Amino acid sequence: MSQVIKLDSGVIRSDLPMADGRTIRYYDSAPHTRTASDTRPVEDQPGIGELRLDPLLNEWVVMAAHRQGRVFLPPKELCPLCPTRSDLLSEIPDSSYEVVVFDNRSPSLRAPEGDWALPDILGTDTDAGTAAGKCEVICFTDNHGGSFADLSERQVRTLMEAWRDRVRELSTHSYIRHIAPFENRGEEVGVTLFHPHGQIYAYSYIPARVEKMLEVAKAHHEETGRVLFDDVVARELRDGDRIIARNEHWVAFVPYAARYPFEIHVAPLSPVADLASLSAEQADAFPAISIEVMKRLDGVFGIAMAYIATWHQAPVREGREYLRLHWQIASVRRAPGKLKYLAGSESAMGAFIMDLKPEQSAGQLRDVQL
Predict the structure, then answer these.
(1) 6: Cβ–Cβ under 8 A, 6 or more apart, which residues?
(2) Which of 124, 186, 197, 257 has a CA 20 to 30 Å removed from the CA of 25?
(3) Are residues 66 and 149 in the same domain?
(4) 178 is annotated as an active-site residue
(5) Active-site residue (options: 197, 220, 312, 326)
(6) Residue 69: pLDDT above 90?
(7) Are residues 247 and 197 in the same domain?
(8) Of 156, 168, 162, residue with least CA distance to 277
(9) What spatial distance separates the first Cα and last Cα of the chain, rounded to whole Å?
(10) Is there a single domain that holds both residue 230 and residue 254?
């Protein structure tokens, strides 16, 4: 029998074991008895990777050589994220689902054994560590040919509840310091499975971008007594010309200094630290604006836009008073048939150059007829 947990908005989570010892979690918007067994042969799971310090930047780099053999662009009939059929034993044993979450079969990060601690940073003398953390796959729908923009508001609300639930649970692990749910869409950004899905990376260290954001936000708070992201949203609301959508609880805008041709930030108007901290009212209001944003993105050129959509939030146990939750969608497409490549200045120097003013891309997004 599955373990059943009741969540907000009538969502039911059902946990079942997979053949190799992992856990699959079904999220349903109504009661649903989940009993399907994973009948695949048991396979050994890969070992834990290595964590090495780049002493020039004091940034951690994960060595996960076992990922070279992961599934790469399988045809639809062999998709491991579709429901199980008579001719396909997939990662999801049941014949249908709404939203599911399970541990990645080829994780970059995995749970450590016994006591674990991040190595002390000593420059070139820093010890290598084990790549502790969690990597989970979250499937948005059992429809292989769909996308986020095709989901119903009810489906997105279930997805939101799954995100919130995973953040709550992953935050209880002592070795987890930061959690980042994200979605990659399109081969242009490296997608290797076309089924609509995302991932949740739970890191045992603070990723470099979050460290930088935290450093800047702390300095702003010390100087002004205010939270930096709150001031950012206030400026966008005041300027108005970069806002593309808004409802009672959320606002979507192209940031003042966008790095990508089409970059959208979606933020709650009443700020919170992370997904788990959202109120029921905020969570209920998210589906409508998120679907609108995705439809506007696809509508700019009338094609499915490649993007990376990432939830930025405060770390699990530090800096929670300085960083705010927001959803960033960034597309590398600048025109039909043209991509913005991260070339010398961006990739080597981290110095972004934009060919399109944020006000222009915001106007194009607003002009899309839904």
Answers:
(1) 12, 13
(2) 186
(3) yes
(4) no
(5) 197
(6) no
(7) no
(8) 168
(9) 44
(10) yes
